[in-house]
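Standup notes, structure subgroup. Blocker cleared on the zinc ion input:
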Amino acid sequence: MSKTMTREASKDFVRDAHGEILPIIENFYSYCAEGKLMGIKCVGCGEIMCPPRAICRNCLSDKYEWVELKSKEN
Ligand SMILES: [Zn+2]
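Run returned:
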């Protein structure tokens, strides 16, 4: 076996045509592999969704941004 994959190349996020990281479970796991717990925040209403969804369950908006979720509170 001669895998020549570098660490940087191993994080291949699935992106759209504009280079945006898509709100799909594959990318959620890619973030997890980096030690980050990430969720999707709806730009329309501020709903946080984890695991991510392409469409907001609250207002059905498809505008989103990735946010890192804090998990060190307790
Ligand atoms: Zn929303």
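Discussed briefly. Residues 5-10 have pLDDT under 50 and may be disordered.
Next: hand off to the docking folks.
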